[in-house]
Design a protein that fits this description.
The protein is of the alpha/beta class. Helix content is about 45%, strand content about 15%. Helix 3 runs parallel beside helix 4 and helix 4 packs parallel to helix 5. The longest helix has 26 residues.
Length: about 300
């Protein structure tokens, strides 16, 4: 017998990195379900434009997920305008593509700040608000790279493994607090994050709408580990059973070893320059920061 789905209408949802890509698409899907949504982004203007486009009372707010004070202020303002937050979706992330030994310290630190620290802080702040009410749902966007080691994006893969482990640990720690936790593991998603990444045999990319649909499904059903596409779950489980040599041979056959090492540098140049932008000092404007944060995949 199919599990009865929860109604999402009226729920207050916050989404980080919500002005574009997966974040914006998810916001659109949740507005369609009757949710009241606040999207946070480093580019305040883009967040406000996206909110106006989405309608449904959506609000666009400034957010730097690598700054705890900024994150707290984002949630405070979302609650001031929309009411107590029911769902926090930690979506913001960035993915430089580079051989690991050549990766700069700045690139490593940016990914740790946005992809991991931002998720840790967002999860902590969500729990602080949800635990007294004994209700709420935290959704952390990880990646299929959080279940495998992908050449060319070693640091990104490390941060996504960490997001998976974090979510599992926090879920166990708060099993009796009435809060639900999910983590989402898409394969390559057709967003700015994969500009210049070539298609590989056996690795069909998915669309942001596919990820958004699975996030909505998780919120309606309480699903914990969310694979996009769903068939990816079987592949991961099979990979865990196979001996290492066989597993690696299958990965080579599917092109996993080349998907992030045979990229088009020119097609990817604009994105790489954005994510390599220097970290501004505290007195610089948010529009100088916008290149540091993009949608997770």
């Amino acid at each position: 017998m199919a599990k009865e789905r929860r109604q999402l209408s009226g729920k207050v949802v916050t989404i980080t990195g919500g002005a574009r890509g997966i974040g914006k698409t998810t916001a659109r899907a949740l507005v369609g379900k009757g949710c009241r949504v606040a999207i946070g982004d480093l580019d305040l203007g883009l967040a406000e434009t996206a909110a106006a486009e989405l309608g449904g009372g959506t609000v666009g707010l400034a957010l730097d997920v690598s700054d705890r004070g900024s994150f707290a202020a984002f949630l405070d303002e979302a609650e001031r305008q929309l009411g107590p937050v029911d769902v926090v979706i930690n979506n913001a992330g960035l993915m430089p593509v580079t051989p690991f030994v050549e990766e700069s310290d700045a690139s490593i630190r940016r990914q740790l700040d946005v992809n991991l620290y931002g998720v840790i802080v967002g999860t902590q702040l969500a729990i602080e608000r949800m635990r007294p009410r004994r209700s709420g749902h935290v959704v952390n966007i990880a990646s299929s790279a959080g279940k495998a080691g992908v050449p060319g994006i070693a640091t990104y893969s490390a941060t996504k493994h960490a997001v998976v482990g974090l979510t599992e640990a926090v879920r166990a720690e708060h099993a009796d607090d009435g809060i639900e936790f999910s983590y989402v593991m898409p394969i390559t998603v057709n967003t700015q994050l994969i500009e210049g990444v070539k298609d590989q045999p056996g690795l069909k990319r998915v669309e942001p709408e596919d990820v958004a649909a699975e996030i909505v499904d998780a919120l309606e059903t309480g699903k914990v580990d969310v694979y996009v596409p769903k068939q990816l779950r079987a592949s991961v489980m099979m990979g865990g059973i196979l001996p290492r040599k066989a597993r690696e041979a299958v990965g080579r056959l599917m092109g996993v070893d080349k998907v992030m090492t045979e990229v088009d540098p020119q097609a990817r140049k604009a994105y790489e320059e954005r994510v390599a932008a220097r970290q501004p000092s505290s007195d610089e404007a948010l529009d100088d920061e916008q290149a540091r944060e993009h949608d997770a995949a």
